[in-house]
Amino acid sequence: MTHKIAVLPGDGIGPEITEQAVRVLTALGLDLDLQTAPVGGAAYEAEGHPLPAATLNLALDSAAILFGAVGDWKYDQLARELRPEQAILGLRKALGLFANLRPAILYPQLANASSLKPEIVAGLDILIVRELTGDIYFGQPRGVREVADGPFKGERQGYDTMHYAESEVRRIAHVAFRAAQKRNKRLCSVDKANVLETSQFWRDIMIAVAPEYPDVTLSHMYVDNAAMQLVREPKAFDVVVTGNLFGDILSDEAAMLTGSIGMLPSASLNASNQGLYEPSHGSAPDIAGQNMANPLATILSAAMLLRYSLNQGAQADRIEAAVQAVLEQGLRTADIYEAGTDKVTTSQMGDAVLKAL
Amino acid sequence: MTHKIAVLPGDGIGPEITEQAVRVLTALGLDLDLQTAPVGGAAYEAEGHPLPAATLNLALDSAAILFGAVGDWKYDQLARELRPEQAILGLRKALGLFANLRPAILYPQLANASSLKPEIVAGLDILIVRELTGDIYFGQPRGVREVADGPFKGERQGYDTMHYAESEVRRIAHVAFRAAQKRNKRLCSVDKANVLETSQFWRDIMIAVAPEYPDVTLSHMYVDNAAMQLVREPKAFDVVVTGNLFGDILSDEAAMLTGSIGMLPSASLNASNQGLYEPSHGSAPDIAGQNMANPLATILSAAMLLRYSLNQGAQADRIEAAVQAVLEQGLRTADIYEAGTDKVTTSQMGDAVLKAL
Ligand SMILES: CC(C)[C@H](C(=O)O)[C@@H](O)C(=O)O
Ligand SMILES: CC(C)[C@H](C(=O)O)[C@@H](O)C(=O)O
């Protein structure tokens, strides 16, 4: 059976890192139908929209999407609905990709890259499960209006709506509990239940789902405290589950603890395991086209694609082992380079992974 | 002229740390009328409400409030409106304390306490200016309702409203720009303008206010990126201004970078410089009553009180110098203790500051 995969390289370093991941996927000897389409700023330039209909249809029609990165400062002046980021929001919504899995792993070979002390982060391995299609990201109504009463009556006001429905929280709870079952069986749900109704509602549902997973220990933490504890003692976490907005902030903070965000993949899944796979880092327009970006996060995203959407766990393991091997060999792109290692380009790193497969 | 000051010790370690700050304030020879009232869980126990009318009236009628800390897990089961945190939210709202100033300073003597590498945090000195009476904290409507249409129709849904009116953003912008003028003249406004209407509105107003402060350089950063950059290179920041919710998260993250949150004061001010002053740390019920908590954040909060609400900058300087002196002498409470220093109790630390004055 042929698996159709949409390859959306996007902007900045997107094309060059995606190219290396495609080489790796192609080398595995699987029956894959890889189809490329423009997305983000590149699609805006070519077709006037960051998520053209043909790109969206290809994505909807594929088992999985390999996504590079989108965005560039040069699009900051565009109307919001034409900016590159809208492509990723549109794909999440259209495909119902509600479950974002973002591992924050510190590879032992890269312990020095972190801005934290080695003893705080060595061996770090946490998984952030972020809800990705609800919350204040998509809540209606939103906009700018006139204030109807109170001290600011008559003024203009920007506003948004945060909300979560019961089944939205339930389904991400199940994803998170199951992920915890496969790991160290500790799940920390992060919210702001001391202030927000949405958070209290979220917390109540997490508590209601917990008895279905008696082997998992559920705890709760306020988001401000979680932002602190990630800095203080990140290894105390196993799996963290949280809403879209808090997850945006905490997953980036957690990734940066490793100091090697160029190594971190992510998966965004829907109920039928269709998924979008992308590196945790951005499009880095400042180094685009220079063959110096780190392709490993994208290559590891391809491994997640195989594991979650194609049920090819053994092939995913192969890729992950190959990445470990190139790190062992001392090969480093500029972002993770340190004295005593070998600095390589994007394509040389791809070559090395292919060879190690 | 007598200055009336409300002393609200609160819960957990609140009473013992406040006691030391009161000793320091009293020793300065100023004409102060210090009046104590219960707040938080302590007030709930005594009077059935976390913010009794008499406490609120005392606060409204004072030039400034010295606040200890509120909260204890034992109140987690209470209805939201009776929980200790409601006292602090109620005081902020009733007094219009819209401007929260939270310095994150790493004292050179305490560089080892941080979980970050010394070269990343040594000399850290950033100021987070957090808007404190608007945003999703107080936005209406909020609650739990039935979903009217769409895929979750008929389900229960928790919801909240985020909003900012024009003058709310303007006044916090002015506070932040002025603070930046007194420091290194760099202001970073943090928002999520690529997703939220409230944030785009916030950003537009920051940009509109900027020309009034031509000597300050304004930049903008998305909140997820800010959470990362605080970990990666915190010293790149000077003053950060942000909304209530993002400020809650980022100010705690920034405080924890120092590893010595027991040292960090905060001020919450209204338009007439009436203010509430409290340590950045919490009520730490686990160590309450053991005479081991660090009183320095509260003592430094008293210094901020003198500077901002009583216009007694020289007296504030005196307190801050005394705190520097006790650190120089090697005195440390348990939270900042390390081998080679002298471990002291809460009251011994208070004694030492008094002596150093
Ligand atoms: C680009 C932006 C809309 C997006 C988000 O906020 O979700 C990004 O930060 C992410 O985390 O994937
Ligand atoms: C106690 C809580 C309501 C409060 C807040 O979220 O503002 C606290 O976290 C703070 O930052 O002062």
TrEMBL record, chains A, B:
Keyword flag NAD: yes
Site keyed Important for catalysis: positions: Y137, K192
Keywords, sorted A to Z: Amino-acid biosynthesis, Branched-chain amino acid biosynthesis, Cytoplasm, Leucine biosynthesis, Magnesium, Manganese, Metal-binding, NAD, Oxidoreductase
Cofactor stoichiometry and binding remark: Binds 1 Mg(2+) or Mn(2+) ion per subunit.
Domain Isopropylmalate dehydrogenase-like: from-to ranges: 4-353
Positions contributing to substrate binding: R92, R102, R130, D224
GO MF term set: 3-isopropylmalate dehydrogenase activity; magnesium ion binding; NAD binding
Subcellular localization(s) per the UniProt record: Cytoplasm
Biological processes annotated in GO: L-leucine biosynthetic process
Catalytic activity: (2R,3S)-3-isopropylmalate + NAD(+) = 4-methyl-2-oxopentanoate + CO2 + NADH
Pathway: Amino-acid biosynthesis; L-leucine biosynthesis; L-leucine from 3-methyl-2-oxobutanoate: step 3/4
Binding positions (Mg(2+)): D224, D248, D252
E.C. number: 1.1.1.85
Cofactor dependence: Mg(2+); Mn(2+)
Transmembrane segments: none
Residues engaged in binding NAD(+): G282, S283, A284, P285, D286, I287, A288, G289, Q290, N291, M292, A293, N294
Domain of life: Bacteria
Chief site of localization: cytoplasm
GO cellular component: cytosol
Primary role: Catalyzes the oxidation of 3-carboxy-2-hydroxy-4-methylpentanoate (3-isopropylmalate) to 3-carboxy-4-methyl-2-oxopentanoate. The product decarboxylates to 4-methyl-2 oxopentanoate.
Quaternary structure annotation from Swiss-Prot or TrEMBL: Homodimer.
Family under the similarity heading: Belongs to the isocitrate and isopropylmalate dehydrogenases family. LeuB type 1 subfamily.
NCBIfam families noted in UniProt: leuB
Protein's name in the database: 3-isopropylmalate dehydrogenase
Organism: Pollutimonas thiosulfatoxidans
Lineage, broadest ranks: Bacteria, Pseudomonadati, Pseudomonadota, Betaproteobacteria, Burkholderiales
Gene: leuB
